[in-house]
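User: Fold this; tokens only.

Assistant: Input:
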Amino acid sequence: MHEKAVELLTALGYEMQGTDEALLSFCIGKAESTVKNEINWQEVPEGLMHIAVSMALGEFLTAKKTFDPAGLAGLDLSAGIKQLQEGDKNTVFSTGESSLTDEQRLDNYISLLMNYGKKEFSAFRRLRW
């Protein structure tokens, strides 16, 4: 799970720093614990691994934003799709007209990471006795 989290952070344009390993490990442990407690399993099942990684990254980015906002300078939050063409259909999105700041985009992304896939827990949930 650690490798997947680092790969996703790298894909987002974030370079791991020396002190990030301990924070990332803590966030991964917290996400694993949350998933295991929600579904009452001893291990995180493969089908929920991507959700646990997302939750861990959400925790990581929240901690970095709170305690080391300058460390997130490498993230490119302004990137987006400008035009989509498929066959004879062409869609152009309004870019640069968004009223969202980079911080608001980061907050929205963190919220997505923290809440993504929680509905899938019910497919794995076991009853507690």
